[in-house]
User: Fold these one by one.
Assistant:
Number 1:
Amino acid sequence: MTLELYRIDDRLIHGQVVVGWGQPLDIDFIVLVDDTVATSDWEQELYRMGVPPEMDVYFHTAANAIPAIPKYRADSRRGLLLTGDIATMRQLTVGAGVTVVNVGGIHSRADRTQRLRYVFLAPDEEKALRDLAANGVAITAQDVPGARPVSLDDLLAGNEP
Amino acid sequence: MSCVTCEKTMSSNEPGAPSPDAAVAPRAIVAGHGDFAAGLVSAVQQITGRGSQLIPVSVLKLSVEDIENLLRTRMQEANVRVIFTDLQAGSCTMASRRILRGMDDAVLIAGTNLPILLDFVFAEGRTAPEAARHAAERGRAAITVHGAGSGPATGTGA
């Protein structure tokens, strides 16, 4: 199998990921790429307790995820890769050839403007998404599998389907 | 059953019905996806009149940090040491576990259902954390399965 989904979600492992995507995609493992979580045993244990026992979770910094991703793509099981922000995913598009990205949840913050019900962006984050698209990365926003994917243009225009 | 009958059944004029004085200070927070918290607290209020013991918290649109800050603020404002959440993997559960880290006198119950909360609001003789632990066991036992494939007890025969 392979990595079925490359998702940006600032809540990382939570209900939408484990249940909403995990069950319909029949996900066996999650690759969580986050520099903070990858260096904290306590945070890793917190996220491990959020998944069912049959689901594995692997933690990486952005730097050490890049050489590991080919191994996950070649895995016989189905996986899902998560980053908590656009900047981390951007590193993976450059370093590990990620070409399709799901924007699943970037939530409210003082410097962000709402674009969709579940996507708020700061100016530098909007620019980063535009740059990714200009470099050939396919970007859509979609919080759950049953929702219609939102194109980057509609996302940035705030056109909620 | 008519709506009038329903309202009468829920009124406080019948023997055993909760008294209007059942409302007390908040003892716990309820948090989860969508309108989970408001829905459950509404149901507790309708059934027992004791919904004021529970503070429903909605976290739609909030970041992980904001969820944690909101729950922490609500806990401090109400001086409560119990949080009920919906999913083990939910953002509210994750945030609550961070808040409760190092708080030896606090309790988090994930996987909350209505029977848990009903037991909790009637356990006024216990401290809130004790009541929450007791209620969790009652709520676990309150799940039943009926119908096809449930075994001889369903009356479907062998």
Note: Residues 128 and 134 of chain A are 10 Å apart (CA to CA).
Number 2:
Amino acid sequence: MGRSATKPLTLGETLGYGAIGLIVFFGVWSLLSFSGAVPRQFLPAPHELAARFFDLLTTPFAGATLPRHLASSFFRFGCGFLLGAAVGIPLGLLMGWSRTLDEIVTPVFDALRFIAPIAWVPFAALWFGTGLGGPILIIFAGAFPPCLINAYRGARFVGRPLVEAAQMLGTGNLRIIVEVLLPASTASIIAGLRVSAGLGWQSLIGAELIVASAGIGFMMVQAQLNISTATVMSGMVAIGLVGLLIDVALRSLEAEVRRRGLA
Amino acid sequence: MAAITFEAVGKTFRRAGADVPAVERVDLAVAEKEFVAVVGPSGCGKTTCLRLAAGFEFPTAGFVKVDGRPVTAPGPDRAVVFQQFALFPWKTVFDNIALGPRNKGVPKAERQERVTRLIALMNLQGYEGAFPHELSGGMQQRVAIARAYVLDPDVLLMDEPFGALDAQTRVMMQEELVRLARINPRTVLFITHSVEEAVYLADRVAVMTRRPGRIKEIVDVGSVRLADKWGTYERIEDVMDLESFVHLRTRIWRSLREEKSVDGQ
Amino acid sequence: MGRRSIIGFATLATLAAAWYLATVPLALISPGRFPSPLDVWVSLRQVAIRGYANGVLHDHVVHSLKLVALGFAVAAMTGVPLGLLMGWSRRAEALINPVFLVIRPIPPLAWIPLTILWLGLGDAAKVLVIWFAAFVPATINSFTGVRSIDPAVVEASRMLGTPLRRFIPEVLVPAAGPMIFTGLRLSLQASWTTLVAAELVGALYGLGRVLNVAQQDIYPGMIFVGMACVAVLGWATTRVIAEVERRAMPWVQIAGS
């Protein structure tokens, strides 16, 4: 990132200002909660939230503890995400490779692109009821496009010149796709995986809020119906943490790949 | 018109936890209306010197003074022409040039007149409403020079202004600068990589050592120019053919080469 | 028409034909699962003329649009200045960043139960959620926009003696312009997605409500109509922003996307 106009801060100053910001944030929150300006039911104080969060790690709510709900959600996310990548990446690479395939698929893709993943929920509910297929469809709707687009871009723009060099050297088609196109597109593909994971995780949460039978979204809906605000907020924190972990994991994958010079 | 003085100027940057000295004990005086070019090996700190005079950086030792007063901030009295032009892409040619006078509070009618005059002077007629990206590199730099000139600055600071241009445009711009300097002489500090450019344009040429830079020697070109009447030649290639020119150029080149070979480049 | 358009046309036409064949004469797909083209037409006529889920299509669309517009506008007017401030001032960045980092990982949709708790199922809750969703991309991209400004341009404006009151509107904002618009486009996308989700969870009007009721009624034709409307409106609002961008920044050559 470039420079801003004002001079960079020292580490001490950065931490200091950061601490002030956090203190103000939690301070105002506590104040609103304690003073009763917002009823306690609707805004638990920060420490109450923390207490509830840790409580949920062992005490079940709506059928399971927080970690179990999370695991259930994550499993569904994993399935949908892997499916999205398994379909999107090869298809994207092939589209980058073959102009004809590109011309056939792109219009269909463009037509469907503007349907928000969450809008698939009614059909998902209709076709799969409360089964596993429903959430997977929705996660797929969110995770598939970035995988496709990034694989396509990697193949088309990065891979093309290298492919031409390989063809000049008389390399067979399959070998080109596997040994040239795929490695050249790696950086783009991994960037796509990051976006895709984020979208997929978000779509899952959305789906679980609407057609909920298990998972963290379900837990939050139940908590909302029971007016247990601290539980709702604990769910939000948990979702944020898992989302962060997924992103960190993929980011280190990206760094590792880059370090090894594969991208 | 003001003079620029560098008095035992040193500048050290802090990069990644270490102190990197850019220039050390630079002593240089640019007299009023004098054109001084600074040449030196890459990284010797010549651009740093210009930035110190401009007020974008501050010396860690010594003083940089313009008109006898230390430089404390950038301003329109020390106009800068940047290597990469630094025009505002969202402003038209006219608005780019007009911003300086607007900041000075020049009333609209007079501003209009001044800007129009500069546009004519820099041969930009017809392009008042164009955006920078629609112009060639040479034209963009002409806008940048117009933007600097319209301020009627005491001092003109030019940081390798023709470095980003192709060779032919560069030659044209050098001729144009000489023409401008004849019409409108001012105090100029001119940084360049090109020895020929320096000898062609300057009254004196300062040669810097490799990093951390000091002034190695100052070569007087102006008196040779007068004595050999370079001014009578219209075209740059005619001047560059003269023995006196070649002699000066070679001498400065040799001086520079010592700096480069010592560095092991 | 170029080759690309012809092939595209042909593909879509083929799919449309396959759709018709699969649902009507061959009955490969049961009508309870996926609507035939005729079903869609009937549903469209119903919702457009007689009404469905408490209103006519026009009412639902306008309602959804209003909420998106409101939420998006508030998010833009709060997010962009904040992002610009954080980009410009290291102090502001250091102050606000930690709070941002705490809020940011929470997906916008995850705010829905909380806003329902706070404000019920009405419009206020929806606008609040949209604001949460749209605010973050606007801020982040405006921030990046400031950080990517060419330092030479800032130096040039300082050299020209530009006062702050002129610098902000005439240098800072235009320079960050392209990234600000990227943020706005992302904000709009987030606004739509969040609104549809919020309306699906619970609402009285809006496209999401139509989808919700259609699902409960097991009415695939109407679901299809609802999804198509969401897609069309999403596309249309994106075009509007693109057009605003094109006019606001005439100096930018927009490369092929």
Note: Residues 1-30 of chain C form one domain.
